[in-house]
Design goal:
By secondary structure, the protein is an alpha/beta fold. It folds into two domains: 36 residues, no CATH class; 200 residues, Rossmann fold, CATH 3.40.50. 36% of the residues lie in helices and 17% in strands. The longest helix has 16 residues.
Length: 242
């Protein structure tokens, strides 16, 4: 019944593209804007950073010092218009933009080569920031992934135990200091099996400082393998369009 009602409403009241405002039928993006999304086609196997050369398997950073997680999947490159979609979702509470990001992330995970995890965890917000925003964007992404792949999602196992500054505007070292020791994880004894391989979900990875601290907390609690799934991955400065 829900599907029938949605079809009727889409025919009577067609949606409009969240980017350009043109009629988009039953979708939140028109065909032109959807085609133009900067999807990650080739990336570092370790951190998901978009790579320019098809022959490269890892970025120079991971060859020098790999992050604590084991695998990374990123759906989109964090540049226009993806940065606008993320901003409208995170700060504007635009769930249509969140639906676009979650759909792209589902597609990226589905077409990835890695094994699916036993459970999914969203990167948590501190309760004060959660109260201010009214929702955790990472949790919404995680719930969609959980439904699509029939994987349990645990939203309270990983906790942010102290309030940190917003990461935006901080350089790599400041981001690392800002999140140092900010997370804790307690895996229930009866759920150890599903936590052997965990997928950690967030909206954007920039330097990876937050995801690294979350991974450290998970592995300290007993997780053996951590995959990172992000809707968008920030490129290196020399990869940005002029």
């Amino acid at each position: 019944m829900n599907a029938i009602m949605e079809t009727i409403l889409n025919n009577l009241l067609p949606r409009h593209c969240v980017m350009c405002g043109c009629s988009s039928g039953s979708e939140n993006l028109c065909a032109a804007c959807a085609t133009g999304l900067p999807r990650v086609s080739h990336a570092c196997r370790q951190c998901g950073l978009p790579l320019l050369l098809p022959a490269d398997l890892f970025c120079s950073n991971c060859l020098t010092r790999s992050p604590p997680w084991d695998y990374a999947t990123a759906a989109l490159v964090y540049r226009f218009p993806v940065d606008q979609l993320v901003c409208q979702f995170k700060f504007g509470r635009n769930l249509a933009c969140g639906q676009i990001l979650s759909s792209e992330l589902v597609s990226a995970v589905r077409h990835g080569n890695g094994a699916l995890p036993g459970c999914i965890l969203p990167v948590p917000l501190h309760r004060l920031r959660h109260y201010t925003r009214a929702f955790n964007q990472a949790d919404i992404l995680a719930r969609v992934l959980g439904r699509e792949f029939a994987i349990p999602v645990f939203g309270s196992i990983l906790r942010r135990r102290r309030h940190t500054r917003a990461q935006s505007g901080l350089d790599a070292e400041a981001r690392k200091d800002n999140t140092k020791g900010a997370f804790e994880c307690r895996i229930p004894a009866d759920r150890q099996a599903v936590f052997r391989h965990v997928a950690l979900v967030d909206d954007v990875m920039t330097t990876g400082a937050t995801l690294a601290e979350c991974t450290n907390a998970l592995k300290k609690a007993g997780a053996e393998t951590v995959s990172v799934w992000v809707a968008a991955r920030a490129p290196q400065a020399d990869q940005l369009p002029e």
